[in-house]
Amino acid sequence: MFINTHTHTQLYDAKIELVNLNIGAPDKPNYYSYGIHPRYITKETFKSQLEELNIVVHEKRCLAIGECGLDKLCNVDIALQQEVFIEQIKIANKVKKPLIIHCVKAFNELINCLNLNDNKVPVIIHGFNNNENIARILVSQGMYFSFGKALLGYESNAAKAIKNVGRKNFFLETDDADISIKYIYKKATELLGIDEDTIRLQLQSNFENVFNFKLT
Ligand SMILES: [Zn+2]
Question: Which range of residues forms the domain containing residue 142?
């Protein structure tokens, strides 16, 4: 059983594919995350988008809020990004569903937003490919990691981090890459030096715990 924790299109090669939807997406797959990506925030639309998010998060098949977060390389004003992120932290805590995070060069601000708003839900940093120091800080904050195509790069940050973050703290994803999640699993087994059955069982149990979801 394969689980893809974050993808933008259904690839039909995993038991669970958590498809990330933007606000207003017309068709909904079996399981999805729903949220406002920092890059797509505008002053004119964010309030109505938050209203819609507030409704959709109650749907059973909506397993997480996201991807949301902070991105210092995009053109959206960082203060506005923080305002919208904080609203999404509040929504996630109200419905007790995890946050799937997009974070670029803003980990300090990210941690502050979460802690100052008394976040209690699991936080999953998606597409993690940052250095050891950042990984260590995020681990100390009890965060989870989702690794994707960066694992395939030779001695990438992600390939190092997966060995250090702890078996209970990670997930695997394809994000927007046109590859099978099976390939990411295979690479992860090599990096961790464990067999496929072990990693599948571990990721099933991680998924059940963090997403409060019973796999059958
Ligand atoms: Zn994504």
Answer: 3-211
Q: 84 C-alpha vs ligand 1 centroid, how far in Å?
A: 18
Distances (CA, A) of 96 to 65, 202, 213: 10, 23, 12
Does 216 have pLDDT greater than 90?
A: no
Q: What is the distance in A from the centroid of ligand 1 to the CA of 174?
A: 8
Number of domains in the chain: 1
**How many angstroms does the Cα of residue 154 sit away from the middle of ligand 1?**
22
Expressed in angstroms and rounded, the spacing between residue 65 Cα and the centre of ligand 1 is 12
pLDDT tens readout for residues 17-40: 999 999 999 899 999 999 999 999
CA–centroid distance, residue 176 to ligand 1 (Å): 6
